[in-house]
């Protein structure tokens, strides 16, 4: 286990006041908050900043950390002393057990001490949250997905360690982005024989090359040849649930949207699919093609920059 | 072993369950509900209220902003509204082709 220098994480001196720590935390929270940050590693940095703040903003934890960490540098191999934590009471404050799966091994081992809690009555374990990323097509069909989680476990000696857990989840048909799946009994373990908490998985979709979802509705583009757009007629269009036969209205232009009722994500009611027409010109890369374009120019007096384009 | 799950939109959460999922007291949520910061319309009786995915997501976002920035609830709600709008607009932006020929 490597030692974590929480003062360095927050960029403050070891002698920093609680006010200095609060200011440093807020500055870094603004910089790395995953909801607002543009930094590439924002989520990981925010976890580290939260962890450092959870220790340094709590006088008891900070005192224990200072006493234990004297002479250690960040990254240095570290083994907690056998009497670690004696004389301090810091369990259950500042960093919820729920957040423990985000914590470093160092934090989980040093500060995630379930049995040091003075609770003697049964307590339900806390609910946990994670995200699950699925393919858009899985929303149409349902799917079995695998998620990997870091689970805090209370050892016999009362210390907490993190264990990798793999779960197979049955994703029901018709889920949409932002919805939560609740899996009973897969949260944090209860205390003193209390029931285990639940696991909540928030659904998001892997980027799809052709379609994006807005609620149950699906939006995508439908490329057309100029003659398909001009003359209209039946074509086959791709949707996330497979190809379907549709009829293009004559005189269609790029940007026109076709609504395919009920072709969005299944549900009660199902969403719709919106296909934006995109007229694609054949390249003028041969004599025959250029001749054809010249012939069109001679035959069809047309200036799209004049009036409404007609 | 495959775990079955329920959708919170089909089997919504009670006030107590939502509070448990967010690690706050029910009173914390009730206070923000009465201020119209979590769901609208506000039900006649709080203990009859049910909450789906949207409320769960919103409550967790509110909590994160309030906690991380020591923000007051109204300000946190405004930030969450703006973040949701930014997310929606960014998704739409993803559709606009990025190549622009400069003549």
Structure description:
With 310 residues, chain A is an alpha+beta fold. Chain A has 3 domains: 6-111, DnaJ domain (Helix Hairpins), CATH 1.10.287.110; 128-205, HSP40/DNAj peptide-binding domain (Sandwich); 211-299, HSP40/DNAj peptide-binding domain, CATH 2.60.260. Chain A is built from 8 helices and 11 strands. In chain A, the strands form 4 sheets. Chain A has a 4-stranded mixed sheet. A 3-stranded mixed sheet of chain A has the order 1-5-4. The termini of chain A are far apart. By secondary structure, chain B is mainly alpha-helical. Chain B has one domain: Orthogonal Bundle (Multidrug-efflux Transporter Regulator, Chain: A, Domain 2). Chain B has 4 helices and 2 strands. Chain B has helices at 15-22, 26-34, 53-69, 73-93; strands spanning 2-3, 6-7. Chain B is globular, with a radius of gyration of 18 Å. The interface between A and B is medium-sized, with 37 and 29 residues.
List the helices and strands and how they pair.
The complex is a heterodimer of chains A (310) and B (103).
Chain A: H1 6-10, H2 18-32, H3 42-56, H4 59-68, H5 105-111, E1 128-134, H6 136-141, E2 143-154, E3 160-171, E4 180-183, E5 199-205, E6 211-214, E7 217-224, H7 226-231, E8 233-239, E9 242-248, E10 257-260, E11 273-279, H8 287-299
Parallel strand pairs in A: 1-5, 7-11
Antiparallel strand pairs in A: 2-3, 4-5, 6-7, 8-9, 10-11
Helix pairs in contact in A: 2-3
Chain B: E1 2-3, E2 6-7, H1 15-22, H2 26-34, H3 53-69, H4 73-93
Helix pairs in contact in B: 1-2, 3-4
